[in-house]
Amino acid sequence: MSGSKPDILWSPHHPDRYVICDSELGLYRIGPVGSAEAKAGTLPLSEETAATLLAINSDTPYMKCVAWYPKHEPECLLAVGQANGRVVLTSLGQSHNSACKELVGKEFVPKHARQCNTLAWNPVDSNLLAAGLDKHRADFSVLIWDISSKLSPETSVAAEKIRLSSVDLDSSTVVTKPLYELGQNDACLSLCWLLRDPKLLLAGMHRNLAIFDLRNTSQKTFVNTKAIQGVTVDPHFHDRVASFFEGQVAIWDLRKFEKPVLTLTEQPKPLTKVAWCPTRTGLLATLTRDSNIIRLYDMQHTPTPIGDETEPTIIERSVQPCESQIGSFAWHPSSQNRMVVVSATNRVMTDFTVFERISLAWSSTTSLMWACGRHLYECVEDSAEGVESMIEKDIATKMRERAQSRYGHDTVQVWRNHLLAGGKDAQLKSLWHDLFYILSVSHMKQCAEDMELKLQGNVQSVVYSGIKNIVKTTSGTTESRRCWIGSDRQTDVLRYHSEERCLALRLCGWISRGTDTDVENFLRSLEQEHEWERAAAVALFNLDIRRAIQILNKGAMAEKGDLNLNVVAMALSGYTDEKSSLWREMCSSLRLQLKNPYLCIMFAFLTSEPGAYDGVLYESSVAVRDRVAFACMFLNDAQLPRYIDRLTLEMKEAGNLEGILLTGLTKDGVDLMESYVDRTGDVQTASFCMLKGSPGEVLKDPRVQCWIENYRNLLDAWRFWHKRAEFDIHRGKLDPSSKPLAQVFVSCNFCGKSISYSCSTIPHQGRGFSQYGVSGSPTKSKVTSCPGCRKPLPRCALCLMNMGTPVSNCQGTGKSDEKVDLTRENKLAQFNNWFTWCHNCRHGGHAGHMLSWFRDHTECPVSACTCKCMQLDTTGNLVPSDSS
Amino acid sequence: MELHILEHSLKVASIEKEGIQICTHGLIKLAFLASKTRCKFFSLTETPEDYTIIVDEEGFKELPQSEHISVADATWVALNVVSGGSNTSTSQPIGVTKIAKSVIAPLADHNISVFMLSTYQTDFILVRERDLPMVMHTLSSEFTLFRVVNGETVAAHNLGVTNGFVKPKLGKLPRPIIHPLSSPSNMFCVTSLDPDTLPSVATLLMDVMFYSGGQKESGASSEDSNHIRFFSFSLIEGYISLVMDEQTTQRFPNNVLFTSASGELWKMVRIGGQPLGFDECGIVAQISEPLATADIPAYYISTFKFDHALVPEENIQSVIGALRTESAAQ
Q: Boundaries of each Cytosolic arginine sensor for mTORC1 subunit 1/2 ACT-like domain copy (chain B) (predicted)?
């Protein structure tokens, strides 16, 4: 500590006091900024804390090391090791303490002078003070002094011999006879008492680490190493020790002392201090020379490194407590992760708390947990009903609810799936309607062969490939200029017709059948759903102003109807195709103030020039299907694909499921779904939607497979095993390639052949396991022997019947066709007959018997067997959380 | 007991007194600016005849080529005895005496020439690198051998020297002292200092090393012709060791030099009338064995031309007596 190299020591018992030692000792008290502001001379340490200098002691020159007495009384007693090897006891600000007085000023002098490198108080027997000294050819380097020792006659004799240094020696306070002398002809650079036994002293000697045992000083345990500086025991694991050499820290396990259990990454500059955090396990702080950062190594997850091969993982990070270069640091003894840092020059101090790493874990449901220091936080979704409408629920919650309501499983009325999903999500509604129209159109095409179709080729793939691809191939478009229905006034609106446009309109759901352009059915269904504005708009686009006005009137009169619709109807009835009329002028400007987008686009349509319908086409709050249908009717062959392409791109970027109408279930559709999943995480919808894509190419897409696997994993994680199985069945129907191959075979004990395999080769014996009673038809077939070698099958451990015999209490239905009646009872009966056995003891029998046995027992039913079969099955004890 | 074979490759050189000024730059760098060189082993001993330098290869590069410098034509390796695992806490005679019987005598018996350097901290036994296999073979029965490699101590294995290479001499031969002895009148102090305080006394040390030979010596020699000019400084692996006479110690400020609690002083026995050379073996053994028998602690410093033993002042008469008897027995 020669001026340039300061050090800090926290008081072992006062959490607010510490000593800085450089050329002198300074005792500081740390406190909150506010309380100390009145006093002059306080030094701010951080935003909240400041330090006050309490006392200075400059009695001991040539300080090399300092150690604070570990016991309460006398407090503030320090041992100072000097450059000439002497150890002096001194104190700070304790002048009136009598207990201290006896000891203060006491000096411990080695036989031969050399630098004192380190000091260590015994933590239990606090009279013992170990001093580590440099090498002398004939002297010991580790001296253990007893500070309570009275001066013996022989030491006073020794004092007589002192000639050179007699000047400053007061023989009454000088002790020259150490209690123990260890490490002859060696140098000691660092010392620490082992916490596991206060009689053991660990010393970093010249080229080895040595453990001295005070009970037998002629023996020592040692290991040759370079890493001998700064030995320090982990206060939380008494067998773990850190030491360093130049830039490298070695961690030792005293139980395996032959070599370091690990060495930390080497620093370019030599280390000056290494210290375990006393308030947190496995945190080691290191400081190198000329550095302004403290490097932390977190060995939290590796309390006891086992074996040679396992290199424990260590999390390394750096903290920068202050701008200037750090001279030294010291962990606070009790305040968590707190340290005081002193700069290399000018004694600038900083109070600093290392922020704890945060580790975070999501559960498969919506809760989130994180740990910081000694705190564990859990964040759960607020399930209170009141806020439900305010905040959207987490997607995991939504998916769980939807899985329970069998979302995705309605394969007939596909559009109903959005109701199963809660019926609140407009995009899902649009998606399932799209899928419904796609499926119904393709289905119709398959059935109605009579329909005259120009789209020969692969009809189905065209339907699945979305409107974008359909309109691309459009040809033979005819134009027509029609009158307003119910009036003979000619419109100047051009309407386009073609097979493809018609198909597109059907996919949009506007028309339902054939080339018929009648939208009456559609209008009626809209009226039923009270979508008055939309119905009016559709009627108007079909050039039926009168119908539109009717619809609006109906809407105004309906229950909870909006009376303003009458006003709109009045405005509509004033339509004139006069270009410069007041009506036109007012409508085109005032329409923007209408809140309902459909009302808005109605006037946009009426007031725009023919062929320029941007006011309709780019009104983003209008459903995509309506805009597309509109485009199919009024855009020419050049405008239409351009508009559809642009809209498709927009939908893909936004991940808007309405766009599936345009992309269909193609690669484009997968792209769109990808951005939807990226945005929402809804793998459930993605999985179900893509399963509908019958061409199969989309199912091979790795992204789709990834969604499906993730959804299955999610269901498993929620313990929705029945749902998962249901999903797998559903998936197997739509994607036959996903059906797993048989993975379990029952082989005969005698001939080793699979009993199912051998019977499947003989056709007249039926399929698979059905004849072993598994099919639920006990009376029909009953095979209790191996079809290969005719030896009997093993017996059930409980009923002692040969396997293949149906379970006696099974109420089989007698119907062998399993597809006909899959009642719960029937299915259970089949499973009850199944073979099952413990993989450990190999005992088993009928699945039904085993299930009922293990409901009450943990041990194997075979009398001499003590196998705890059920406990070996870790998942067997879990209960599925879905009821099915 | 452990014997550590250190990794330094050492050169032993002699600088004539009149040639010292051309070397001072390098020597000052080696002695006081250790961080500027990669030298780990440096020793400078001034005798009335010359300056003896022991330095490792890195440090040797700092010295100029000159006709004033003669270098012994061998590379030397330093051995160091460490008490090791079996730590007997009984007070032993210190220094060369301790290792006289276990190291020095066996090496003398095998005709291996040694060069001794005692310091405040320890004793170094220098042997020629080419003799190392023989040394290891000779000492492997007594010692656990370790080699220092990159600062790490590793067990050294016998380098395949088979038995019967040279038959050890059977029985104990008398080892008469062949060289003349002299004992200067001044008393010496073996001491050290804190490397941190070295800069504060650097100018004083330079003065002692290079400039105080002239007037002071002449003044002293006028009153006592038996007075000898002898000063040794070594900086080995960061440790400083100093040997100087009592008058020189007075020139240092208080509390800088490490002194033993008992403040012991040493007298010198100087061996050799003619320069001893490097090939003769058994010289150290001749001196150290009688001292070991009499249980007298000693330092032993070999220089390019002569050897020097330091013994406690109160023992000097009995030492001279003992050695004379040996010599007379011849």
A: 179-261
